[in-house]
Amino acid sequence: MKYLTILFIGVWSFIPKKSIGQDSTSLTFSGYCELYYSFDFDHPETHEKPFFLYNHKRHNEVNLNLAYAKVKYTAAKVRSNLALMAGTYAQYNLLAEPKMLQLIYEANIGLKLSHKHNVWIDAGIMPSHIGFESAVGADCWTASRSILAENSPYYETGIKLTSTNKAGKLFVSVLFLNGWQHIQRPTGINNPSFGFQLNYRPKDNLTLNYSNFIGTDKPDTTHAWRNYHNLYAIYQINKSWGIIGGFDFGGDKNLNNEYSWWYSPVVIIRRIVNNSSSIAFRSEYFNDEKQVLLQTNTSNGFQTFGLSLNYDYSVTKDALIRVEGKGYFSKDKIYKQNKANNNYSILLVVSLRL
User: Fold this and answer.
1) pTM, full prediction
2) Which of 47, 77, 166, 223 has its CA 20 to 30 A from that of 201?
3) Minimal CA–CA distance to 205: which of 232, 234, 231?
4) How many CB atoms lie within 10 A of CB 235?
């Protein structure tokens, strides 16, 4: 509990007590919960879906993917967030973190640096600056995440300097990080990591983004260096149709100063049918032939094409049922089906978001 105690003391010490309840400040409480049932037609004996997936991980059982309780404080020059979580998302994504830190979804404090400009510095555990998909299903067009999102950071820990222009259309961020999706820096890694984000909204229906990560995820003795780039565009064509296009590529440098690269394009098309239902189609490809991120121990590495079809139905304003079927088709036989190897996998996810 010492981590949470220190965090609460730190947040409370920055809050101007006399201002609580005034118009310029707010203290809000919120929560999120996503239950799911997932089925893998490969019938894995371990009840775990393919190794490259971390959300909706459990096969043939009703489970909790992610639930959190959050408190948020905002004032003219101070802001802070604290959210504690549970679910299989935390179980599998934060497996390498100490037990107590696996409870934390978000914990950060921010200070405004300028009276005239919207410039902030934030420190702590924060959502990742990479990608258009998050661990929160409510923020995503599909029930499950893409392979790209599952194998890039969902969260990060460090210091972030941000600036937003007066029109609110241009957002720039520079980050000093503990590493590639780490709260506590692993033993043997002392070199710092860095990030950058440029998010631009030229129109209300169009978002353009570039983010990167420059750092390491391997011990200092390997002299490895990760160079990762994330690009995407979100275009809401009209009230009914929207499209997301993304492309990520990255490389790790080895002792011979040679880079091993991986890349992944993804396209999502969503059709809003009416006020209560929508349909989304996703097409994606992930190529990690050198097995930098995804080790298959096969001759062609991880080269996988994915398709998914998603249907959403809003029961109420706060309750959403999602049904998604998807298939993965790989160059090598990396899936086990009835104790034999196969090069494709078919999955089903049904989720209830509250």
Assistant:
1) 0.89
2) 77
3) 234
4) 14
Query: In 3D, which of 184, 132, 145, 185 has the Cα closest to residue 52?
Result: 145
> What does the alpha-carbon distance between residue 341 and residue 335 come to, in Å, rounded to a whole number?
6
Whose tokens are 């490809």? That residue is 285
User: Token pair for residue 82?
Assistant: 């604290």
| Residues 306, 329 contacting (CB under 8 angstroms) | yes
Q: How far apart are CA 73 and CA 227, in angstroms?
A: 35
Dist CA 141 CA 133 (whole Å):
8
DSSP, res 37:
E
pLDDT in tens, 159-204: 999 999 999 999 999 999 999 999 998 888 888 899 999 999 999 9
| Phi, psi torsion values for 141, nearest 5 degrees | -80, -20
pLDDT at 117 over 60: yes
Residue 230, phi then psi, degrees to nearest 5: -125, 125
Give Cβ neighbours of residue 203 (< 8 Å, ≥ 6 apart): none
Handedness of CA 33, 310, 92, 191 (dihedral sign): negative
Which of 111, 27, 109 minimizes the C-alpha distance to 70? 27
CA gap 326, 273 in Å, rounded: 21
Buried b (16+ CB within 10 A) or exposed e, 146-185: bbbbbbbbbbbbbebebebeeeeeebebebebbbbbbbee
Residue 321 has pLDDT above 90, yes or no: yes
d(CA 115, CA 77): 9
Q: What is the mean pLDDT of residues 221-226?
A: 84
Strands in the chain per DSSP E: 26-40, 61-74, 78-86, 104-112, 118-127, 155-164, 170-177, 193-203, 206-215, 225-236, 241-253, 259-272, 277-288, 302-314, 320-330, 335-337, 340-342, 344-353
- Note every long-range contact of 160-163, with CB atoms under 8 Å and residues 24 or more positions apart, other chains counting: 160/121, 160/122, 160/123, 160/126, 160/129, 161/119, 161/120, 161/121, 162/119, 162/120, 162/121, 162/122, 163/117, 163/118, 163/119, 163/120
Residue position matching structure tokens 């998807």: 326
